Amino acid sequence: MSAKEPWTARVLTVFPEMFPGSLGLSLAGKALERGLWALDVLDIRDFARDKHRSVDDTPFGGGAGMVLRPDVVDAALAAAVASDGEAPVIYLSPRGRLLDQALVRELAAGPGAVLLCGRYEGVDQRVLKAREVAEVSIGDYVLSGGEPAAQVLIDAVVRLLPGVMGNEASPGEESFERGLLEHPHYTRPADWQGRAVPEPLLSGHHENIRRWRLEQAKEITRQRRPDLWARYRREQDDG
Ligand code: 9WO
């Protein structure tokens, strides 16, 4: 008998010191300590073979910057995949499929992810092709490397794993899980600088509170994110 392996993030990076970073604190950090997920950080430099341990080289065709070498990245990916042949291999890149809550749920349902973090100008295209690496973007902006994007992806997945969240806000009841933006939140004092907390929240009438929050979530979504609102309406219509 062996206990089931927890959801595992295998991160390939030339800056291993960036991990766990914020993932070692708060919700994700506690879950990591409790063994609800695992983090395996591989230093790409450990897979360099020459005496200078070089991981990058100048781009063919010229231009500024450096490109991560395919042989070195391939060796690192081979090691990561050897520890877990089932997990999807993902390169964090602005060219990738946009990360959304549906993809986060898919990843959380699997055994983990191998996350390749690029630096410099990127990774030699041939190794991405040869290993059929999927590309995922966290948004339309350029970072200085894939590491913060990998941390965003891991954070979003970890909070969905069984046992991570306790009963405070089960993810299924969360606004975003229903395709809506969050309703507003209030705490004491009930009157702050002459601003009152909306009356329904003070009523103690749970059904009214639920309805009020849902209406607020819908209104905010309609105003701010017509794209999410259209999808929500479609999904309500389809039942
Ligand atoms: C640099 C660059 C310069 C001019 C025009 C386009 C450019 N793209 C890049 C670029 O993608 N550089 C990368 C830096 C190389 C690989 C890792 N880097 C990265 C990943 N930057 N931003 C991301 C990223 C990952 C996931 N989601 C959003 C951004």
Structure ligands = ligand 9WO
Note the total helix count.
7
* Class based on secondary structure composition and strand pairing: alpha/beta
pLDDT < 50 runs, ≥5 residues: none
The CATH C-level name of the largest domain is Alpha Beta
Helix-strand topology string: EHEEEHEHEHEHEEHH
Number of domains: 2
Tell me how many strands there are: 9
Summarize the main sheet.
5 strands, parallel
CATH domain topology of the largest domain: Alpha/beta knot
Task: Write a structural description.
The protein is about 35% helix and about 15% strand. It is elongated, with a radius of gyration of 22 Å. The strands form 3 sheets. A 5-stranded parallel beta sheet has the order 2-1-6-5-7, sandwiched between helices. It is built from 7 helices and 9 strands; from the N terminus they run βαβββαβαβαβαββαα. With about 240 residues, the protein is α/β, with parallel strands linked by helices. Strand 5 (about 90-100), helix 3 (about 100-110) and strand 6 form a beta-alpha-beta unit. Helix 3 packs across helix 5 (about 145-160) and helix 6 (about 205-225) crosses helix 7 (about 225-235). It folds into 2 domains: about 5-160, Alpha/beta knot (3-Layer(aba) Sandwich); about 170-239, Orthogonal Bundle (Trp Operon Repressor, Chain A), CATH 1.10.1270.20. About 25% of the residues are buried. It has helices spanning about 25-35, 70-85, 100-110, 125-130, 145-160, 205-225, 225-235; strands at about 5-15, 35-45, 55, 65-70, 90-100, 110-115, 135, 190, 195. The protein binds ligand 9WO. Ligand 9WO binds near residues 93, 137, 139 and 149. Ligand 9WO binds near residues 94, 138 and 146.
